[in-house]
Design a protein that fits this description.
Blueprint (H helix, E strand, L loop, with lengths): L8 H12 L6 H4 L1 H9 L11 H11 L1
Length: about 60
Amino acid sequence: MAYIDNRDWGIYNERLVKRGEFYLGLDFLENWGRELSRMNRGKRGAPFQYPESFAQFSGLMYE
């Protein structure tokens, strides 16, 4: 008796696509200036150019 493949490949492919999706919150872009102002307040030397949230986002994307 031959094997009959009953899988729905369309559904299977859609599940694979959804499994690979990665949702990112880009809220740090809205608060970029405020966060830099807060980080640079009272700082001596060269000012920070990138907020801490951007560094965390970059680290997340690197993984």
